[in-house]
Write the structure tokens for this entry.
Amino acid sequence: MRILLVEDSPRLRDTLTRGLKKLGFQVDACGDGHSGLDFVLVHEFDVVILDLMLPGCSGMEVLRLMRARHVQIPVLILTAMADVDHRVEGLDAGADDYLVKPFAFPELVARIHVLLRRKYGGTANDTLIGNLRIYAKLGRVFIGKQSVDLQPKAFSLLDYLARRQDAIVTRTDISEHVYDHAADLQSNAIDTAVSRLRRTLREAGATVEIQAIPRRGYRLVLSRP
Amino acid sequence: MTLCVLVLYGSTSWLVYSLVRRSALAHLQQNIEERLSGFINDIDWKAGRLDLDFHINSPAEYAEGTRMAFYELRDHQHQVVVRSYSLGLKESLPEFAAKPLQAKLDDGVKVYALARSFRPPLDQDSQRPDTQAPPTDSPGNVFELTVAESTAGMDRQLRDIAEALLLGGLFLVASCSVVASLMARWLNQPVLRVAENVASIDTTTLHKRLSLNHTPREMRPIITQFNALLDRVTHAMQRERRFSTAIAHELRTPLAELQSLADVALIDCDHDPSLREDPRDVFLETTAITARMGHLLDLLAVIHRTDDGQTRLQTRKIDLREVMLKLGDLFRADILASGRDLEITLSASAILVRTDPSVLEAIATNLLRNALQHATPGCLIELAVTSSPPTLSVSNATDTLVVEDLAKLTEPLWQKDTSRTEQERFGIGLTLSRAYTELIGARLSFALDGEVFIASVILPVPHSF
């Protein structure tokens, strides 16, 4: 899952980026409104965390410009402005959630998951496909009753594919949302990671499989009986 | 109002009554005098006897029992010669009243009486001399005629007038009371309306202002001043709100940093120990954040102490030019390194003031830091010292400020840029400068001349050293 964090406090920005990355999110971060707007107009994100009082262009302006240009990425406003008026203004401007500083990091993560659920459908953080269970908040995967240990990247890849069950996910999507552009599309890093994940699932007896769609990408589907 | 009308009416009534009474009295006295003269002219000697035709032909009001008019003729021995039938047999009028005299008869009838002494002449029409008549100049030929008239008629008329005036007064008082009550209600309506409008203004409706339309001219200055007071209250509340927002922002962000730091450090990353935080980094970050919060509180405490007059001054005589040169030397390198230029303009002669140099330097340092922070890149920062009054000023071009910002510059934590990217600044330097200038009896002034921002410290003129 790819997140954009627009926060002017360098210390808070660094801490949140570190924490979210630990939880398997791909995080892009910037400290001013103009850069934030450039990011959302050029790249595709699953969630934007937006501060309001930003240098150059305020968070509210960024939000309005995003919505005016039909960028429908879920936005979570993270700000020190706690007045009801500000909350209402932010939500009216098109924000999907509003969190006031100081906040508990787990609450921020929980709200991000809510926005992801809203974007990709579903009502719970846990994904259940066949005998595959993914507990996103815990970062754990179960095949039947058996726990499967996955590296953070492998977990993010599986979670991303599972959230888009039956849909074709391109290598570009995977690179952006799972690997933070770190994976070279020309290399076979993504193919290797998918192949390794597929083997892990098969060996654990999963009733789902990751199909390769030639020249298009991959999709996670229930195995044929 | 009713009392005024009552007093006015009472005075007028009394005046009218007095005039009428005086006029009636004069008329009565004139009447008596005319009668007296008429009667005297009608008395003469005839065949050695007094001719008293007036007695025989006296008008009806002198008739018996009328008790309206009276006369009495006495000889030189005060013996009654004749008296009107209207007088009883034993009654007498007051003896010789040279001036009109008020008297009361036996039965209580009030009269005005007038008497005159006279010598009756001989009968002029007789062909032969009246040898029986006493000589006209003899002492026995002196008579005294007293004529009196009852004041009953006049008194009745005056009583009628008094009653009419009293009734008129009562009616007027009643009418005035009603009219005054209605007028008071009518006149009080604008006051009541204003009172209602004032009562409807509370903390949530401070934007409302009292209208001058349909308001009496006398109340307009009050309403104008009240609206001006509301403006000042609104501005004060806005200033407080901005301060609350700013302090919340200043504290919420570092608190969020602290909490996130702790939360992220606590994330269970057993499955990948390589992601575990280095405790030393967390502690260093925590120390930096708390130090910043502590610094903010220290600055606010300094402002509070200065505003409370708890800061002690150590004043001495100084030359303002030396202060400016010292600060210029101190900041020159930083200003040039930032791509801006520095120019110091000083007067030829010394500008001496008596003040605390450390406080003055703190003020000027804040102004220079402010200029260094907000001056347009590449511009000239100018320091100047002028006399009359002793003034120290810092000017620089800026493209961030507008005139409306000038009033907010010394508000605690106010910053044009609401973001907190620059973590070393709080927006408190100019607040502190304002407090310091007040402490040393100086004045801090800001002006915007086009794009040039001028901050001046105007010191009091020293009386003596």
Notes: The mean pLDDT of chain B is 84. The CA atoms of residues 265 and 279 of chain B lie 8 Å apart. Chain B touches chain A at residues 245, 248-249, 252-253, 255-261, 263-264, 267, 269, 271-272, 275, 277, 285, 288-289, 417-421, 423 (CB under 8 Å).
